[in-house]
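Q: Could you fold this chain for me?
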Amino acid sequence: MAKTDKTAELSVKQAGGNGIFSFLTENIRESGKAPVRVLAGFVAAWALFFLILYVLPRPQGLSAEGMAVLAIVVWASVMWVSEALPVGITGISIPTLLILTHAIPWEKGRPPMSTVFGGFTSHEVWLCLFAFFVGAVMQLLKMDRRIALGILDKIRASNVGRVIWGMFGVNIVLAFLIPAANARAATLLPVVKGITNLLGDTPEEQEAKKAIVIQSLVYATMICGVFILTAHMPNLIMVGIFSQHGYPNLSYLNWAILQFPYLGMFVLTQWWVRYHFRTKGIDIAGGHGEIRRQYQELGKTSKSEWLLLAVFAGVALLFAMGKGSPIYELHRHQLGVIGLIGILILFTPGLFPFKWKQVQDRTIWGTFLLLGGALTMTSAMSKSGLAGWMADLIHGPVVGLPWWGIVLALMVGTHVIRIGMLSNVAAVAMLAPIMFAMAPKLGLHPVAFTLLVCDTDTYAYILPTQITAAVIAYGSETFSTGDYAKAGWVCILIAMAYGLLVMAPWYALLGLPVWNPNAPWPF
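A: Sure. Below is the predicted structure, expressed as structure tokens.
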């Protein structure tokens, strides 16, 4: 023990001898990050924060509170892009900065704690936490692997096409159970790698590996995420904005009805990927036999797995039968309250044989904090007038265009902005309140307009670094950034066309025509 302490002390002294910069960079490198990017991002974030807050003149039409929120938004954006701070720490720091800058006015000499931490008390956050716990327990039970291998076994996946369609089915099922696209991609990575390892090293098989990984871990994950409310954090951010501005009752079921046509987009991406990587007719030698062997190794479904399914099914039924349910209105509680009830049931003593630490270690606390901070930031942008001011700046160039021209222009602009950003959650947290505020100025329905523009942000497929799920897929070392971009730019065009030609008419059919801002709320 004494020897270990002396070694550590010597290391610190050596680091100090080499200078504080060397000490910091070595520690950052040991944490798995790029020192230059992290330190440059950290310094730039704070420099821009103080520059906006204390040096730059306040633009006409922007309140002092709005200027302070702008400083915080820029600070958070740079921190998120550079990953100088963990995303969750950036999220929890947003309320702190709102207090210190008085961006939300103090009340009787006291900071408005309930307001600045409002994102952490919203029902979307607690709904998210329930989903995180379900995903953690499912991983401990290895139920995620059972679902993936079981579906692939049932469809007798023996060629590239069957594997990709099977993994799409797996993603749909897991979207109900595992929140956050990055969590699903990480869960499925070993399964997908096991399948690609069955392929050889011929040029055709190398291309097939690229198609399987990109489609299964990125495209399928993101497309399915838009469909299920808890499967994609930006969904919860947008629902939170809608409910705050008089558009309530977007329940679990209503959201699924609103967004399920997006699943059809996978048909088009699969057509393109199949053509681009030329995977037609490529078989996986021994593929189905190996998948069946791995599936059978898992044994019979345990009682704990059946119990988890029963708990989730019961809570999902409560989600679907809440206020405004088209099936039957059993209760009028918010989704977050039902999520908290689900947590109580989930941790009933004796249901599952796991220690709390095991569940805790598999719960995505960073994303939980990121979501709370993002919700707080979107609320602050609206309340301070920043969202409206930014909407005024942006809407000028698109005034006079038809509704589809406006949507298309902002879709393109969104993808340009997203080239440098990793977090889809952070991007939508900044984008959604601006789009919502801009819609009335352009004579468009705020909900339909926000959905169309922000949903396209989900399909940022130019660089792997734009989406965490793509970063995970890139870690499989089966494709290059060039491979990803060549396939991705066409899929982005598909996503934008799909939004205009399929989703906009579908929203109109449900009573949300993007071209009519006065349409009565149908939910």
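A (continued): Residues 481-509 form the longest helix (29 residues).
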